[in-house]
Write a structure and sequence with these properties.
Elements lengths: L9 E13 L2 E12 L3 E6 L8 E6 L2 E13 L2 E8 L18 H14 L3
Antiparallel strand pairs: 1-2, 1-4, 2-3, 3-6, 4-5, 5-6
């Protein structure tokens, strides 16, 4: 699959509240924030949400607003890809999820370890 993301995604694990309207009725669920970037997030939750649905993700004392771009159901729930609105960009200065991990750092550490091992 071709990578279309502009911003680097950081892996994380954080429980957040997701709020959206479905058939004119407000809905609320808890979801796990799986990854995050400046312009998007991935949520893991038990409920599927239709593509194009606008939602709000609340965490601590803040929130992010975006639109569902995909919803993939799996054995353990649903993965939702959410594109954040331009006025709702994520910043680590404002919100730093628990267990935040940059996969590029893991790759760099692996290369350094590999070079350190004698042949």
């Amino acid at each position: 699959m071709e990578e279309r993301r502009i911003n680097t995604r950081l892996l994380c694990a954080e429980l957040v509240e997701v709020i959206w309207d479905e058939a004119g009725r407000p809905q609320r669920r808890v979801a796990n924030l799986e990854d995050i970037s400046l312009s998007g997030i991935c949520l893991h939750m038990d409920k599927s949400i239709a593509c194009g649905t606008q939602l709000t993700v609340r965490y601590g004392d803040g929130e992010l607003v975006g639109t569902v771009r995909y919803c993939r159901s799996g054995e353990f729930g649903n993965l939702l890809g959410v594109q954040l609105e331009k006025g709702s960009r994520w910043s680590s200065r404002h919100f730093r999820p628990h267990h935040l991990l940059d996969p590029r750092e893991l790759l760099e550490q692996s290369v350094v370890r590999h070079r350190a091992v004698p042949n």
